[in-house]
């Protein structure tokens, strides 16, 4: 994340796999509108609800928005709808070239995604994973250990932090 010698797009894409369990098929094709900048806060829409990006990932996202180089395109990509513009005008980057680039950096999608899902599923119920990460309810349920069915009921019994 801190290595300025790496391309900004590789740094950002490479962090989405181990932090947010994003598969390369999704990781390679976010629209520019997926990164939401509101004052000092930067969020990323992966599912239905934007995820607030922690520092320094928010800085990497802002820098990527400021200069989105194309992988094999010529000319400007500032008018592209995609965070990672592809080889053809108006098209997003395919997951194959992104995977090759990340592999050269030692980032492998499948083990990174598996690790992230294992960690996140122990902290969040399946419904929340589905909403935040944009994964299917079946996938989220399969990864979540234990019984999160009582999650909402348990929340009802807790005192509200403002009251």
What does this structure look like?
This protein has helices at residues 8-20, 24-27, 57-66, 95-104, 109-123, 126-133, 137-143, 151-157, and strands at residues 35-38, 41-44, 51-52. The chain has 163 residues and is mainly alpha-helical. The protein has a single domain (8-157), classed as hpI Integrase, Chain A (Orthogonal Bundle). A three-stranded antiparallel beta sheet has the order 1-2-3, covered by helices on one side. Strand 1 and strand 2 (41-44) form a beta hairpin. The mean pLDDT is 78.
Topology:
Layout lengths: L7 H13 L3 H4 L7 E4 L2 E4 L6 E2 L4 H10 L28 H10 L4 H15 L2 H8 L3 H7 L7 H7 L6
What string gives the helices and strands in order?
A: HHEEEHHHHHH
- Tell me the total number of β-strands: 3
Largest sheet: 3 strands, antiparallel
Shape: globular
Structural class: mainly alpha
End-to-end Cα distance, whole Å, is 40 Å
Mean pLDDT, to the nearest integer, reads: 78
Low-pLDDT segments, ≥5 res = none
Q: Roughly how many Å is the radius of gyration? A: 17 Å
In CATH terms, what is the fold-level topology? hpI Integrase, Chain A
Tally of individual domains: 1
């Amino acid at each position: 994340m801190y290595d300025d010698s790496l391309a900004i797009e590789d740094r950002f894409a490479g962090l989405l796999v181990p932090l947010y369990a994003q598969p390369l098929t999704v990781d390679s094709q976010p629209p520019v509108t997926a990164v939401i900048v509101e004052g000092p806060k930067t969020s990323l829409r992966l599912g239905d609800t934007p995820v607030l990006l922690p520092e320094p990932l928010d800085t990497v996202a802002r820098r990527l928005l400021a200069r989105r180089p194309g992988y094999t395109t010529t000319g400007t990509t500032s008018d592209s709808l995609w965070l990672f513009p592809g080889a053809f005008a108006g098209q997003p980057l395919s997951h194959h070239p992104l995977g090759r680039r990340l592999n050269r950096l030692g980032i492998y999608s499948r083990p990174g995604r598996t690790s992230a899902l294992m960690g996140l599923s122990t902290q969040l119920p399946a419904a929340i994973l589905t909403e935040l990460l944009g994964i299917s309810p079946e996938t989220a349920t399969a990864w979540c250990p234990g019984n999160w069915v009582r999650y909402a009921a348990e929340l009802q019994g807790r005192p509200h932090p403002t009251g």
